[in-house]
Amino acid sequence: MGLMDNIKKAQEMAQQAAQQGGQAAQQGGPGQMSPSAGDVEYANLVMKVNQNGLPGVATINSITESGEGSDPVNKAYDIGVSVELENGQSYDTTVHQYLTQDAVNAYQPGGRFQIKADPDDTSKVILYGQA
Fold this sequence. Notes:
Layout: H1 3-19, H2 37-52, E1 54-65, E2 75-85, E3 90-99, H3 101-106, E4 112-118, E5 121-130
Antiparallel strand pairs: 1-2, 1-4, 2-3, 4-5
Helix pairs in contact: 1-2
């Protein structure tokens, strides 16, 4: 999933949350659910790191489906990574990110990807394109 896809999904989730008052209860009828608190948090994180994130590179160590996701095409995954920020900081963390099946196939152990980390909590990282 590229940067623009992340931004679009984040904007859609934030807009949907605002329209539905942020409630997690079913609205209107079958199949229409409000975004979860996790969806809203993810959308806010994507928008924040897109604007102010610390750039770096991450090497994928593992990837597992988290069981979350409000869309069958974009499921949530937990991706274990080793991060190297451009400022020299290195650490391991887990990225919780929504991916298409094509992206899952690309995000395999050993792969290196550009990232941006939340400047207020560098354990929160968003993966972008291949490094």
